[in-house]
What we know:
Structural class: mainly alpha
Radius of gyration: 28 Å
Order of helices and strands: HHHHHHHHHHHH
Amino acid sequence: MADAQPPAEKITAEVKRLKEMSHQTFFEAWITYVQGGTDGATTREAQAAAFRSQDLASRTLTAADRAAREFKTVVARRDGESKRDHQARIRDFRQQLQDARQPVVGAVEDLAADEAEYLAQLDDEAFAEEWSAFVRAAAGSSRSGRDYVQGLAFRSPEVAPRTQALAVQMMRNPEDFLPELEGESRKAHQARVTQLRSRLEAELRFLQYTLNYMAARWGRMPTAPNYRLQAMRLLAEKYPEEFSRLRNAVRNDARQAREEVQRQRRAERRPQARSAN
């Protein structure tokens, strides 16, 4: 049975209260809610609406994913509890977590659809600013799923081709999107560039899945991305003189190899020609 919709002011108050919590306190509040309880500050209905609100949906989903990873800690074995009873409580918790998580996932997807519509109507400069801010924030975060809503929006079928083109441009010229900070050392700046490239590589993989899905829906077999060719293009752009030197060296080696094969074949044909005469 779906939770009844509580008064808007109760939801607003609960959103504010949850937003002010530390990460651990928020996580514990989510676990209490998943297990059917409440900390007494509000009703379960108000808390349910707050957890899936626009301000908290991404944070809630991150807490849900953490709970799925740390279920053995969340549902610790009690003193004297049998292994069978402990496993039964773990199964119950996993089911509770799945049931509580699903409405949050639905809320995140709805919010992502709205965000995708917003991103699609932006001009190129505004879109680049939004994407750059998202990637930089993700690159500087140690927590996955920092903003599920915007991540899903950028990877949506409506926005993914535009996002991919911009991500490739950022990979080629990260300095244009990541200027040096005042007082920042060159080493620290390079570390930020490396971090940004790593995040972009991950995002490009996600985007490729979206684009493959779009192709497959129309009955076309999606082609696997040629990472080797992409890497060669990046090297050619970043080190054109060195790339040209290596390319010429490889061509010369290939030419010399062909000439050597031709010489061997001519040498093999000479005895045969004399024998025939």
